[in-house]
Model the fold of this input.
Amino acid sequence: MVSISFSVPKIRAFNHQRNTNLMLSSNCVHSLPQLPLSSPRFRASKLTGKSLFAPALSFRVPVTHCRFSTKKWTISCFRHEESSPDSPNSESAGELLHEPEKSEINTPTVEKRSWGTRLKEAVDVLFQVIGKPWTVPWTAETILQVTLLWILSFWFVGSWLIPFGAHIVGFSKESLTFRGQALFSLLTDVTEGLAGILILHRCLSRFRPLPSDWFKFSLKGNWMFDVLLGCFMFPLVNRLSQFNLDLLPVLPSTPITLSSVEQSIMARDPIAMSLYALVLVVCAPLWEEIVFRGFLLPSLTKYMPVWSSILLSSVAFALAHFNVQRMLPLIFLGVVMGVTYSRSRNLLPSMLLHSLWNGFVFLDLMK
Done:
């Protein structure tokens, strides 16, 4: 706001010529603009006496003290500028006016961000628990190739190669004793494991050298706690086995037969039991962990999160046992071993956990 004061010696001259240029006290010429009579921009008041222009113009003149005895008029010209957004006064006024609205609007936003932050922190903790994805140098074509070749080799060795070899030698599995059946089972398991490892070596040879966290065996690291925690899950796996049997019971038309392992245990043949223990506790955990946890689980992390890879590899692990009555406990056991392997990046803990579970089952059968 700019205030300009000037004196008019004669009111009559100002009344006849309202738009004339007046000499200001600052030696500047100011042109009084044409405004409507009702404009609030210019108001005049007389220091002494009544205003002659009160009917025509509405002027506002602040009352001041004057020492002159003569009647004079003081005209004040006020220029009202529009409030610009850059003006600090306008900004502070706007903030004062809209401050309650901003607080009301921003309150849900802050709560939403806090929930999002908490969710992100929970996900980060989960990722830290199960580990990060692997660096996978091959594509899905290689993953599918290895998986199919391993399934074919497993079926070919167990159903054709070993039985045909035993037939050529002059033996049949049904005619073998408990010790012969145990030896036959050990030979079959070792051959299947070697075939699977040979397929891996052949299919992955062109990607060598592999990153350091692939197929790692090491005694170093703080993985003993994970193995101990996994052992506490064994009772839950056992309960899932019973639940799975209740969910999918054996059909009445299906004859209940004892496996060769159970028959050897019932016969209390120490050599047969030792051979079966070697298969269950050493051989099977070794090659199964190399195939399912060492290769399949890390390879899947190229196309899906780690937790999804653990679950999918666990389903494949359960399907490979060809036993519907044991699907749920095997899937859960595969998840436990998958998390252990993902956290340690070491096949030794998952193999040890697998061996302990098979030993737990074997000892339970001996009761």
Remarks:
- The chain has a mean pLDDT of 74.
